[in-house]
Backbone:
């Protein structure tokens, strides 16, 4: 029979045990922090009626989204983010949901893009949102969660850049920039990190903005938040000021927060506080971003839900932690391998194994009475830290030999002490 | 703007927080048992080159599988099970994998079927497999894991039915059933649970099997395993006998194992020991099934991997546990709600909340100074067991009032004792 090449699509990935151990560890840490702050999980379907996914971006989205007609001629699409499915779920279920509603969602999403470095067709997102309140406590809580997540994962030099869209709009107004041009201006300012200040000034001048240099000077964050606040103090800074006060009450160290009046976030989706997390230790771009939005469910219903939420870029976080060598010591599950000395010792080995399992120690038994060297090699390949040998000598004395694989140190102890020794 | 109906496809589901709490609990328990036995997680892509999914069943599978051409005219399919993607992953990576290779995989799969009760288009499977060994210890280990999983989840009256495909073939041989007819006969016998003994006998007679009644009498399990072994003892029962001996060494109580010579499992995929788990407490059919197979990767490569594995029917397990009322007390994440007495008490409430979070207590703060009755209602809706009130009186004395929502009992205690009181 002709063999089929065991390939996968570009931009998708197989996760082998070593990858998964790391990914599950990171996901578990993120999940536990979300849960500590009272967020509950939801999950939405992968195969969706296409209009519930593509409504938002209409024709343009079709090219970037996996969509197809199924055998029953239903038009199906796979989600490209978690916000649209969340909005759909809220529109369908808001009467039964507690309000405010705090949810988290960790799922795969798909983009029909040409895969290239850092651009995948299939990847995970981790979203949290609070909807149904306009209180700025919600914004501060989300900031606190971002700090807790990045600290817990081992990030040190990270910063949450924060701005108020209302403030930015007011500043643009003061430069007599007409409302219909403000989105274009904001999108241009948003390129600051990528192209630098001079280029942005030139782009702004090209589209007719006068005093672009002066504007960019005003928007540039100062060396500390206090100075930045002072610089823009003639504008209405009540929103961003209250946000910072709440963050203080949440015990967020100020070093993690940077008031950045130039932060624009391209989407016209955000209406209040917006944030993005970057790290100075490497250049992966934004690790997490989001903000306050209005009218989450506008596509689906007339109910008006305001909320605040952020999406953690799970794949970038994994890459960053790898680069920081934070994942080097993440091992696989087995802590102990019980070897099989010879055919006669099967019963002893199985009984030792059962005892370990009963004691809750992640462990395994080798399936064949291969040469011990081969069994040790298997333990090394799986990074199993301890190997137990129970040959005829040990069996006679009701003993086991425990070998620590890292040091090669061996100890023969009484069977009764095995579990406590390993624990 | 015209609103889009916030609907989902039939046979797919939204999981709200109450559903997800239960599902994550069950998944976590299953996952931890797999890990205790030294299985490591893998994950495979959702969007796959269609030939790597459909190769196995060719044209027939196309109708039952979600498959489509993407914008680049690539033929894509979504996995209908976890075995085919696992085989593909092994074929692509076996040189780097430890052998024997023990993996678990918990992922969604898709079937393009007409949805009906118990038949979904999108659902989870949980698979474990050991490949690269022919040792019967592997079969016994998988049996042990099945017992641990169902016990841990709260099942009591469950049974693992076990048979040896080799034995069944030998018995069919002794009835002079020609090799080319044996698969048809096995598939007929496999209907036993659904249609009953008499119907199977008639169907066997119809396809020309002589002494069908006698055959079915021989295959029927006796009241205990010992009697069943005795009845078929003139055949080669070495495989099934060794399996039972290993199970004993694994401390599997005999009540959970039933030697059932009639167990056929429709697929011609299984070559040795096969099993299925059923429960007498309800009629959901098989909760878990699998067995020994040869040549896992035959579709993809010439390497010959024998293995043994089972798939846990996650969705059926959830339904069964629901029916058994085992999931009634599964709550959401928040344990404590910190209320907001009035605008002046925001700082106190946030500081109390920060203290709880710091202490690792899953909790949340209410975002607005609504009437306390409304805040209590929110706590009830989210099943939050404790509510903290810190009004002006409490604040003055550095105290908090803790209300237990279930009993209505209230206690005012010093702030210093709050965390220890709640823990």
Residues:
């Amino acid at each position: 029979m002709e063999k089929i090449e065991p390939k996968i699509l570009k931009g998708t990935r197989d996760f082998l045990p070593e990858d998964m151990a790391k990914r599950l560890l990171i996901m578990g840490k993120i999940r536990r922090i979300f849960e500590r702050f009272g967020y509950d999980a939801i999950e939405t379907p992968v195969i969706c009626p296409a209009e519930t996914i593509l409504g938002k971006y209409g024709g343009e989205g079709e090219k970037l989204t996996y969509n197809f007609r199924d055998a029953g001629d239903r038009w199906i699409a796979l989600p490209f983010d978690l916000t649209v499915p969340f909005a759909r779920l809220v529109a369908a279920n808001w009467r039964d949901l507690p309000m405010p509603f705090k949810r988290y969602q960790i799922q795969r999403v798909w983009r029909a893009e040409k895969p290239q470095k850092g651009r995948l067709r299939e990847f995970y997102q981790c979203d949290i949102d609070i909807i149904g309140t306009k209180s700025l406590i919600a914004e501060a809580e989300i900031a606190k969660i971002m700090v807790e997540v990045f600290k817990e994962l081992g990030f040190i030099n990270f910063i949450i850049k924060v701005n108020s869209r209302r403030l930015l709009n007011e500043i643009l107004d003061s430069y007599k920039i007409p409302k219909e041009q403000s989105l274009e201006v904001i999108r241009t300012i948003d390129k600051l990190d990528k192209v630098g200040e001079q280029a942005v000034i030139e782009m702004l001048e090209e589209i007719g903005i006068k005093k672009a240099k002066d504007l960019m000077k005003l928007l540039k964050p100062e060396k500390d938040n206090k100075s930045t606040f002072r610089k823009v103090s003639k504008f209405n800074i009540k929103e961003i000021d209250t946000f910072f006060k709440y963050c203080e009450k949440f015990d967020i160290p100020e070093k993690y927060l940077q008031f950045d009046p130039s932060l624009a976030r391209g989407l016209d989706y955000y209406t209040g506080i917006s944030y993005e997390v970057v790290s100075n230790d490497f250049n992966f771009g934004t690790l997490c971003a989001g903000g306050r939005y209005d009218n989450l469910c506008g596509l689906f219903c007339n109910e008006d839900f305001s909320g605040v939420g952020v999406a953690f870029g799970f794949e970038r976080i994994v890459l960053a932690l790898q680069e920081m060598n934070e994942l080097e010591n993440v091992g696989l599950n087995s802590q102990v391998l019980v070897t099989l000395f010879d055919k006669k010792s099967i019963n002893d080995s199985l009984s030792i194994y059962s005892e370990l399992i009963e004691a809750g120690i992640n462990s395994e038994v080798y399936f064949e009475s291969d040469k011990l060297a081969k069994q040790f090699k298997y333990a090394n390949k799986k990074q199993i830290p301890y190997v137990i040998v129970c040959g005829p000598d040990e069996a006679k004395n009701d003993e086991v030999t425990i070998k620590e694989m890292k040091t090669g140190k061996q100890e023969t102890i009484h069977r009764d002490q095995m579990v406590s020794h390993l624990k």
Remarks:
- The mean pLDDT of chain B is 93.
- The two ends of chain B are 51 Å apart (CA to CA).
